[in-house]
Write a structure and sequence with these properties.
The structure holds four protein chains of four kinds. Chain A has helices at about 15-30, 45-55, 75-80, 110-125, 140-150, 170-185, 195-210, 225-235, 250-260, 280-289, and strands at about 5-10, 35-40, 60-65, 85-90, 100-105, 125-135, 155-165, 190-195, 220-225, 240-245, 270, 275. Chain A is of the alpha/beta class. Chain A is elongated, with a radius of gyration of 20 Å. Chain D has one domain (about 5-315): ABC transporter involved in vitamin B12 uptake, BtuC, CATH 1.10.3470. Chain D has helices at about 5-25, 35-40, 45-60, 65-85, 90-115, 115-135, 145-150, 165-180, 185-195, 195-200, 205-230, 245-255, 265-285, 290-320, and strands spanning about 140, 155, 160-165, 235. The chains are: A alpha/beta, B mainly alpha, C alpha/beta, D mainly alpha. The structure holds adenosine-5'-triphosphate (2 copies) and magnesium ion (MG) (2 copies). Chain D: One of its GO terms (cellular component) is plasma membrane. Chain D: Belongs to the binding-protein-dependent transport system permease family. AraH/RbsC subfamily.
Chain lengths: ~290, ~325, ~500, ~325
């Protein structure tokens, strides 16, 4: 019989998130699932409500993209009691692993480390970096920061000299970068490390308007690989972006089906991401547009 | 002393201006770089210029908000209107061959239409403003996502670049736009009777009805105007970075706009509208933000700093403090004579 | 008259003694070095023109405003109320000039606020309602106390406010223009109560503009003028002309008291309504007003005068009947339409329906005219100023300048501004609901003169008033309302206070 | 007793029942104690916040700080329990005290300095969120057997669970209703919301009442924060974003006028449940994408309000007093 699967998404806070939702939905349709979608609008409490509504409806499985890593024990126990398996996507949980089937996703710490490593190579280990964070306290931000810090710790010539929140947006990124350029001086900044592409796009604008050449005078690295960043990169304004795969649905559904079939599923499934450089940017942009 | 006496005609008017000046002066003493303005590549360059440039969207929205608040209303939907109109403008630029002028007109018209929906809900159906506009605040971003299909839209447009970061007479174009809008608004409000009617409706809607003012029409007008202002801000915001990110565009702008109006002395209970001071209010907020960004305060202290300074400004301006200062002055004078 | 006779005779220490009290507002010295005293168990009238400082005095006394200088002794001890509640707890209970109750609460809640009866520590609604009924009974009101206050007319609210003040145990009761919109029966009732209280040794300060009431009830009179103390008199020893001179500062010609206006031949009908009414609100009414005629509307509280005016002016919509104005049939659904048709309406409740408190005197005055002209044709500032100045002059409105917020004017002066607002629109038919509410003797006289003048110029007036004396003076015809229907019409020589009272009582 | 004053609340209840009825009719499992239990639990902390907010709104004010207050209290709880190893009971006590104190401070600024509540509480909103960040920027698990006991405590009624969180909510709701109706403080709140000038002239202590109103709101918001911490056993700095808007709308949907003086505390419960039911309707449908979800929420809100208006007009006609 066809499976009924509920998908609890965090919200639609970014283009990447929308792409993720769409990809997952398309995958479910391709498999002929009865697919139920709940958008939590960026609130954990709404995600909990959605899980409970799926429990009441008696779905066959729940796919959860947790907004935060903590606070799930109770509701996951309820799902467990109702015999409904839960698969995590996008990020993991700080919970008893027996409460979910598996966790599909990328590794934020790893991503931070990859960017750090790229920057270390590019600048030969000497670089004053400014950081554009997303919202304070976002899990992704904390882990990427940690991974990044782990790497640059090894290079005495590398340090983060300023850090601010650009609230995930290009206007925010631009505004913060403008202030950095004034207060620190463009010539004293070697690279920008933006926690998402949008802020990188804004930062590049600010650098340009200050009469400097982004990606040459100041390096720019970011995460997400949204479509628009490839355009900017192709224009030679940012240096690197890290892809976060929005195609996690297939892996999650596979795991769910395997679990329902009584097979063993590994607790952690990592979907690969990769760095993208200006060389392939134009091509990627054309492909993704 | 004479001078000060002249200034103290109305603490309500001088409060916000002096607060702004005080913040800038204090910051200038701590960090002279903050107040330095250079002339470089045919344009002015400096943190204070950034403040002006960055404040324009908030200031423009706050103008509309001031008028709405004058009618004893509130418009929570402006952030979403920014997103919708940004989306409309971006889509029109990328997907059609319309001239830039038509794009502008259509985008602003979209804002006007949404404002009209708000206006109808508030003044003709009688829904409380905060709820009526909350409806569009929630669903408006959804509409914006529908328009672009949920993705962000980047575009190339010379005209938009000019709006976003162009210069005219060495001053950013968007400052001209904001100044023009302010002037136009003041003209419309003060050289016609609209301003009087709106203030009257806001201060006492019943009495206004008795004198034959069509309260509903003018309330409606206020929301339409607010919608158009938000649309204009939306266009400026996307022009700034050449990309319309509907998911975050204009998020929480309504709070800053309301804050600007209230800092300017506007009362949420309706009545007097202070257009010029509203701009000052927006500048105060932006100055704070820019100071926080350029001063190296750790991120997690941003909000505390902002809240503390706002509170300080409010406390100094408050009627109670003013009265206490006056008392003190009187006593001092009393001792002297 | 330095040492006034009244205090010299009295040796007992006064209940309240006010010494050198001063209070200034921006640009106005509302109270300037005022001293006098109130005895135990007397009714003390506080008189003066509009803006003389009576209300300010009361508010300073009860701590609503802080005083700039001066001392108050209450039972021989320094009295310093921080606010009205404090004053109340010290034994001073006040009914302020405008009705100051909570419109959104029920009558019971209003009456028992701060003094709710309790059971087991919680408020007992049943006992509260019972207490409210008792309080209402004292002032002769038979209404359902569980109804919301703003469902009642301003006069009823006034009575409720009085009932509330009477219900609190006070040594000094202050009533600021309590009778402004009451009719004769209610006034008598109130006076009985005041006499009763006086017998219990309670002192009362009483503010009014009705001199006959002053003579009926008060023991002594203190007159204020321009914020300054004029003198205190024994009522019995002071002729009315003297009193007026003390208040106004000059002697006023004997107020022209002709026996009544001539009736006009109703040949040139300007305005007519035919079976005008609304279910649950007003029984269908027929009424005509001729060009240049003043028609009075008389009746008891709640008889439907205000309702009739509201219906005519489109504040409320009728569901039956027809209206013609200047020969044209009208269908009026909103005040705007009424104004466009040539009407104007000065409503009864000036605080709620009249003034726009934050706006200036000038703005308030031109508001109706401007609304009539539409938003596109603003009245040039110079023209505005000229018009406003003329009106301030003509109605002798007391304000330091025309840019003062109207909310800061004294009650009577606010009323004059609202009247001026409508005069500026030059209507064909002017509806006035209690137009002289809270207006002082001098101005009262002026206003009646203005009304006569206007009707000479061909304007027609429909005036609802609880002041029969006034109606008799200027009305050419009086329509009498009772239980929301028109019961009788009196013309010309038929009009007298007695005949009106008789018609109402029928 | 149907009086004019209760009509808005009654029509809100009617519309809530209509919505719930529609859900029960359209979706399997919607009707029943299980979802009912979930509705009470899931919306508990919004409703608790809204009850406090109801007092503020009835007094003619507004409190924008509640969402941040919840975040701050969560962070404080986590700090006290995890970092300082305090027993959760102590942590709860301290948190409630601190929250109430902050409310009192805001109330004092509003009342004594006569600054508009909107802006004072907006500053409070920034301040508390900021304080939350300063205490910790991480997501913290509050692991303590006592917390688990609390969150697991509940009585089953059929399939539905009435758990600790829902119980606290119901108790606080009852307390709120009683305070608003049967205490002098409650009446004073209505009085200053109805007309604060008149209230002052009648002798109501405006300053004291205002301060207490915001203290009360601070109290309710901090309990809401604790309920959140108990329900999820965790704390993170982004908790409660925009909860102030949810709480305000819950109050207003429950028939209370934002201008003050008119409405009922119980309306906060109705409004909060309405939001919950609307959300579950959308979840049960399960076919809406993110964009349509927002739009449908808006449309349902509008429909709710319009229905409420229609019922109100109809009821006024039916119950209008004959002369
Ligand atoms: N709050 C205020 N602010 C400024 N001026 C005020 C204020 N209240 C009263 N005044 C001024 O003080 C003067 C005295 O006013 P007050 O209300 O005491 O007069 P009154 O004798 O009660 O007159 P009325 O008979 O018209 O009620 C007036 O000139 C008035 O304009
Ligand atoms: N004595 C009363 N008893 C009960 N209800 C009353 C009384 N007086 C007024 N009302 C209420 O007040 C409302 C307004 O009456 P209205 O103002 O039309 O009467 P009015 O003749 O103008 O009297 P007023 O002199 O009070 O203005 C009525 O709807 C009625 O419900
Ligand atoms: Mg007075
Ligand atoms: Mg009347």
């Amino acid at each position: 019989a066809e499976l009924t699967v509920g998908f609890v998404q965090t919200g639609s806070e970014s283009g990447w998130r929308t792409a993720f939702t769409n990809a997952t939905k398309a995958e479910a349709e391709a498999r002929g699932y009865d697919f139920k979608f709940a958008d939590a609008q960026g609130k954990q409490e709404n995600q909990i409500k959605a899980i409970r509504s799926f429990i009441v409806q008696g779905v066959d499985g729940i796919v959860l993209a947790p907004l935060v890593t903590t606070g799930w024990d109770k509701v996951l126990k309820e799902a467990d009691r109702a015999g409904i398996p839960v698969v995590l996507v996008d990020r993991g949980l700080d919970s008893d692993p027996s409460l979910y089937v598996t966790s599909v996703g990328s590794d934020f710490t790893m991503e931070g480390a990859m960017i750090g490593a790229w920057m270390a190579v590019e600048t030969e280990g000497t670089c004053d970096i400014v950081e554009l964070q997303g919202a304070v306290g976002a899990d992704a931000a904390i882990k990427r920061q940690a991974g990044f810090a782990n790497v640059i710790e090894n290079f005495p010539g590398m340090q983060i000299i300023a850090s601010q929140t650009g609230s995930w947006s290009s206007t925010g990124g631009k505004e913060v970068m403008e202030s950095f350029l004034k207060s620190i001086g463009g010539e004293n900044i070697c690279a920008v490390w933006a926690h998402n592409d949008n802020m990188a796009i804004g930062a590049a604008q600010a650098i340009k308007e200050a009469g400097l050449q982004p990606s040459e005078d100041i390096l720019i690295a970011s995460v997400d690989a949204i479509t628009d960043i490839f355009k900017t990169m192709a224009d030679g304004e940012t240096n690197v972006t890290l892809e976060l795969s929005p195609y996690q649905g297939a892996a999650a559904f596979d795991a769910l089906e395997a679990h329902l079939a009584g097979e063993d599923v590994p607790k952690r499934i990592t979907v690969p991401g990769g760095l993208f450089y200006p060389e392939t940017a134009a091509e990627e942009y054309a492909r993704r547009k | 002393m004479m001078n000060l006496k002249g200034l103290s005609i109305n603490p309500k008017i001088w409060g916000p201006i002096l607060s702004l000046v005080a913040i800038i002066v204090i910051m200038g003493i701590i960090d002279p770089g903050f107040v330095r303005i250079e002339f470089k590549d045919g344009r002015f360059y400096g943190s204070l210029i950034d403040v002006l440039v960055r404040a324009t969207p908030t200031a423009i929205i706050a103008l509309g908000m001031a008028v709405v608040i004058g009618t004893r209303g509130i418009d929570l939907s402006v952030g979403s209107v920014v997103a919708i109109c940004g989306a409309v403008a971006a889509m029109l630029i990328t997907e059609t061959d319309l001239s830039f002028a038509s794009v502008m007109v259509l985008s602003l018209a979209a804002g006007g239409v949404i404002g009209m929906l708000n206006g109808i809900m508030v003044s003709y159906i009688g829904i409380q403003p905060i709820i009526a506009t909350l409806i569009l605040m929630v669903s408006g971003r959804g509409i914006a996502q529908l328009i672009t299909g949920g993705r962000s839209v980047s575009f190339d447009s010379v005209a938009m670049d000019i709006i976003g970061s162009g210069m005219f007479l060495a001053i950013p174009v968007r400052i001209w736009i904001a100044a023009g809008l302010l002037l136009l608004t003041i003209l419309v409000m003060r050289k016609t009777a609209i301003g009087l009617f709106i203030e009257s409706v806001g201060a006492n809607a019943r009495a206004s009805r008795y004198v034959g003012i069509e309260a509903r029409l003018f309330k409606m007008f206020a929301y339409v105007f607010s919608g158009i202002c938000a649309a204009l801000a939306g266009v400026i915001l996307i022009a700034d970075v050449g990309i319309a990110e509907i998911n975050r565009l204009g998020l929480w702008l309504e709070l800053d706009a309301i804050l600007a109006v209230v800092l300017a002395g506007g009362s949420l209970n309706g009545g007097r509208i202070y257009l010029g001071l509203t701009i000052i209010g927006a500048l105060i907020i932006q100055t704070l933000t820019t100071i926080i960004f350029s001063s190296g305060v750790p991120v997690e202290y941003n909000l505390i700093v902002k809240a503390s300074i706002i509170l300080a400004v409010l406390l100094v301006q408050s009627p109670t403090t003013q009265a206490a200062i006056k008392d003190l002055n009187m006593k001092r004078k009393g001792v002297r004579t | 008259m330095n040492m006034n006779v009244a205090t010299a005779v009295d040796e007992a220490p006064p209940l309240l003694s006010i010494q050198n009290l001063s209070k200034g507002f921006a640009g106005v010295r509302a109270l300037d070095d005022v001293s006098f005293s109130i005895r135990k168990g007397e009714i003390h009238a506080l008189l003066g023109e509009n803006g003389a400082g009576k209300s300010t005095f009361i508010k300073v006394l009860t701590g609503v405003y802080s005083r700039d200088a001066g001392q108050i002794l209450f039972e021989g001890e320094a009295f310093h109320a921080n606010n009205s509640g404090h004053a109340q707890s010290l034994g001073v209970s006040t009914v302020y000039q405008e009705v100051n109750l909570i419109p959104t609460m029920t009558v019971t809640e209003n009456l028992t606020l701060l003094n709710q009866p309790r059971r087991f520590g919680l408020i007992s609604p049943r006992k509260a309602e019972q207490r409210a009924r008792e309080m209402l009974e004292r002032v002769g009101l038979n209404i359902d106390p569980s109804e919301q206050l703003d469902h009642f007319s301003i006069a009823v609210q006034q009575l409720i406010a009085i009932a509330r003040a009477l219900g609190t145990k006070a040594k000094l009761l202050i009533l600021d223009e309590p009778t402004a919109s009451l009719d004769a029966d209610e006034v008598s009732r109130l006076f009985e109560l005041m006499t009763e209280l006086k017998a219990q040794g309670i002192s009362i300060i009483f503010v009014t503009h009705f001199l006959d009431q002053v003579y009926r009830i008060s023991d002594r009179i203190t007159v204020l003028r321009n914020g300054q103390y004029v003198d205190t008199y024994n009522t019995a020893e002071l002729p009315q002309s003297e009193l007026i001179r003390a208040m106004v500062g000059k002697s006023l010609d004997e107020l022209s008291k002709d026996t009544g206006a001539e009736s006009r031949a109703v040949q040139d009908t300007l305005f007519a309504i035919d079976q005008y009414g609304k279910q649950r609100c007003l029984e269908p009414v027929d009424l005509t007003v001729a060009r240049g005629e003043i028609v009075g509307l008389a009746g008891m509280l709640g008889s439907g005068r205000t309702e009739l005016c509201n219906l005519i002016f489109g504040v409320d919509s009728v569901d039956s009947g027809e209206m013609t104005l200047a020969g044209q049939s009208q269908s009026i659904r909103s005040p705007k339409q009424a104004i466009d048709a040539g009407m104007a309406y000065c409503p009864e409740d000036r605080k709620v329906d009249g003034i726009v408190a934050e706006l200036s005197v000038r703005e308030n005055m031109i508001l109706a005219l401007q609304a009539k002209r539409g938003w596109l044709r603003p009245i040039p500032m110079a023209e505005q100023k000229a018009m406003v100045e003329e009106m301030i002059d003509r109605l002798s409105i007391k304000t330091p300048n025309m840019n003062k917020p109207i909310g800061e004017l004294s009650g009577g002066n606010q009323q004059k501004v609202i009247l001026a607002r409508w005069l500026l629109t030059h209507p064909q038919l002017l509806l006035l609901d209690e137009p002289t509410r809270g207006i002082d003797v001098g101005a009262h006289h002026d206003i009646i003169e203005i009304m006569n003048e206007l009707c000479e110029q061909g304007m027609s007036l429909l005036v609802a008033s609880s002041e029969l004396e006034e109606l008799v003076v200027f009305a050419h015809r009086v329509a009498i309302m009772k239980d929301r229907r028109k019961v009788k019409e009196l013309t010309g020589s038929e009009i007298s206070q007695q005949s009106i009272v008789a018609a109402i009582a029928q | 007793m149907i009086s004019e004053r209760t009509l808005p609340l009654l029509s809100a209840i009617a519309v809530l029942l209509i919505l719930y009825g529609y859900g029960s009719f359209a979706y399997n499992g919607f009707f029943g104690l299980r979802l009912a239990g979930y509705l009470l639990t899931d919306n508990a902390f919004i409703i608790v916040t809204a009850v406090g907010m109801a007092f503020v709104i009835l007094s003619g004010g507004i409190d924008l700080s509640v969402g941040s207050m919840i975040a701050f209290i969560c962070a404080l709880m986590a700090f006290l329990v995890v970092k300082l190893n305090l027993h959760p009971l102590w942590a709860i006590l301290i948190s409630v005290l601190v929250g109430t104190c902050f409310g009192t401070i805001m109330g004092t600024i509003i009342a004594v300095f006569k600054i508009q509540p909107f802006i004072v509480t907006l500053a409070g909103m920034f301040m508390f969120r900021g304080l939350g960040y300063v205490i910790n920027t991480q997501q913290v698990k509050i692991d303590h057997p006592f917390m688990t006991t609390l969150s697991d405590f509940g009585v089953y009624i059929g399939q539905g669970e009435l758990n600790f969180v829902a119980m606290v909510m119901l108790v606080l709701l009852a307390v709120g209703v009683i305070v608003s109706k049967y205490t002098r403080f409650g009446h004073n709140v209505y009085a200053i919301g109805g007309d604060s000038n008149s209230a002052a002239l009648l002798g109501v202590n405006i300053t004291g009442t205002t301060i207490r109103v915001y203290a009360l709101s601070g109290f309710y918001a901090s309990v809401a924060g604790i309920l959140f911490a108990v329900a999820t056993g965790s704390a993170y700095p982004e908790v409660g974003i925009a909860v102030e808007l949810d709480a305000i709308s819950a109050v207003v949907l429950g028939g209370t006028l934002l201008t003050g003086g008119v409405g009922y505390v119980f309306g906060a419960f109705i409004g909060g449940m309405t939001f919950g039911v609307i959300q579950q309707l959308i979840n049960f449908d399960g076919s809406l994408n993110a964009a349509s979800t927002r739009i449908v929420i808006g449309v349902l809100l509008l429909a709710f309000i319009l229905m409420q208006k229609v019922i109100l007009i109809w009821a006024r006609k039916v119950t209008a007093k004959p002369v």
